[in-house]
Design brief:
transferase; globular; binds 4'-deoxy-4'-aminopyridoxal-5'-phosphate; alpha/beta; cytoplasm; serine biosynthesis; EC 2.6.1.52; 7-stranded mixed beta sheet; aminotransferase; Aspartate Aminotransferase, domain 2; 3-stranded antiparallel beta sheet
Amino acid sequence: MKKHNFSAGPCILPQEVFLKASEAVMDFNGSGLSLIEVSHRSKDFVEVMEKARNLALELLGLEGKGYKALFLQGGASLEFLMVAYNLLETKAGYLNTGTWSSKALKEARLFGEVIEVGSSKDENFNYIPKGYTIPNGLDYLHLTSNNTIFGTQLKKFPKVDIPLVCDMSSDIFSRQLDFSQFDLIYAGAQKNMGPAGTTLVVVKEDILGKVSREIPSMLDYKVHISKDSMFNTPAVFAVYTSMLTLEWLKNLGGIAAIEEINEKKAQLLYSEIDLNPVFEGFAKKEDRSNMNATFNLTDSKLKDTFDALWKEAGINGINGHRSVGGYRASMYNALPLESVGVLVDVMSEMERKG
Ligand code: PMP
């Protein structure tokens, strides 16, 4: 039986994507060859890469606006340092909203001065800092749109006249935004896009080439752009599967359509968290993430009962991250509304038992 998979990442993808990807592993486009045994320079794979890059720009509404899409390797974690390598000449600003922002900030410090413009560390990152000031003279400002571990999400983005960089690993393609306010977006594939192994980078070309240091080829966005994201062997399976997910999203009606479904899922779960006395939310209400909902039992003695109930209901992956404890239900694009319904039913049953 298919589980209700609330895993934070790698995570659920559409069933039809799993099916098509597995078919291509056996026989790619009727070629008699597997997707993972053909040359990445073959016409069929070059088309896949092109399609994936174009779909990413199309879905984000960034076609023809000076942006390039790349499918790189090394995870979002490599982008923490690639961003700084390519953009940090003297100083950069970072908004510290959680574990991943902190890691990005730490890597950037290897390349120049880093100013933490705001931080919510004082309350274990359960809110998004607001009202912070952005100093003059920054090379860029770095934000994390969704904090996967703590379950917070930026609802508003500061207006700045310097390049705006955003780690969107855990909410890319999940909600409508004016993506043209960002100059560089990066996201590990393994949440809303595909399997682990590739990272989408969308970058406005005119922000590149401004630092004085020499950049090793593999870490240089310009090199990857000049080779159409094929400077070296790309993660063929991860790129193909990401392309399938982007196609699925386009056929569904794009980001506008999925946003509506994501809103319904989040509302259903958060209203249960708020109305059911057995549970309490972790993140501040106004900053709650529509992707990752973090919550706790109000009485930890109920843990064994709750854990048995959700496992019995076929639910997977709702244990919280060790730095927060409690529970985290990740509701990425491919998670059906019905799965959230199953979780909410289990939570209501807990109320009857509690
Ligand atoms: N940023 C965010 C917001 C994340 O959620 C994660 C992974 N969970 C990362 C960065 C790191 O990604 P990767 O494991 O692909 O390096």
